[in-house]
Amino acid sequence: MVEQSPAYGLWGLVIINSAVFILFAFSFFKPRTSRDWRSFGAFSAFLVALFAEMYGFPLTIYLFSGWLQSRFPGIAWFSHDAGHLPEMMLGWRLNPHFGPFHILSFFLIGGGFVLISTAWRVLYQTQRHNRLATAGPYAFVRHPQYVGFVLVMAGFLVQWPTLLTLAMFPILVGMYVRLPSLKSVKPERNSATHTTVTQPVSPPFFRIWSDCSVPPASAVRPEGRNV
User: Smallest Cα–Cα separation from 36: which of 179, 144, 132?
Assistant: First the structure.
């Protein structure tokens, strides 16, 4: 591989790229509740951690530089292209931006943002009529925008894996899977017993797993938002 100049310390690019992707996601996600902000904040933290290593300081490569140099000699590990670890470690010697993992990441990232935007259009229309979202992607998954976040993060992870994002990814996926179960119950006050009970108002993550146990959308008045 041709020796290249280091391409890090570009903190301006860290800020610009983080802001562009976060604002783009925000324009479709529109967080309202505390859980919305929590899920969006976690997604934003993932992006900041990613771009900080992509353009700021390559912590993962720095920590493993000795092993990488001995195991994969001839690669300028502190060049920008070397940050595409899957291509480098599998011997891809052409431009990594045209490598199989980078191309796969485009489909995952693009698909994730398309899913987020499509879900928002459906959600916007249903909220205007005070109905439960069941059309479009909501016909198959209870929270398509969370699935979109996971696809975007998976795409960036395939494109530019780092220790921090690898550690964050399963935690965030677990959080997104758990949030629908927290939203799927509605507290109700029993006036006779003066106790609070919960009633299911929406199915778990995937609708197709629980259609038979969920009341029809026409019988449900949505409380808050379907994400």
Answer: 179
Q: Which residue has the tokens 């509740």?
A: 33
Rounded to the nearest 10 degrees, how much is the dihedral formed by the CA atoms of 178, 144, 122, 35? 30
Mean pLDDT, range 207-225, rounded to an integer: 43
Length of the chain counted residue by residue: 227
Task: Quote the pTM value.
Answer: 0.76
- Residue scoring higher pLDDT (9 or 224): 9
What is the enclosing helix (H) or strand (E) of 51?
helix 34-51
Of 131, 227, 133, whose CA–CA distance to 179 is shortest?
A: 227
**For residues 67 and 85, is the Cβ–Cβ distance under 8 A?**
no
Measure the CA angle with vertex 57, ends 56 and 61; round to 5°: 135
Phi, psi of 190 (to 5 degrees): -90, 110
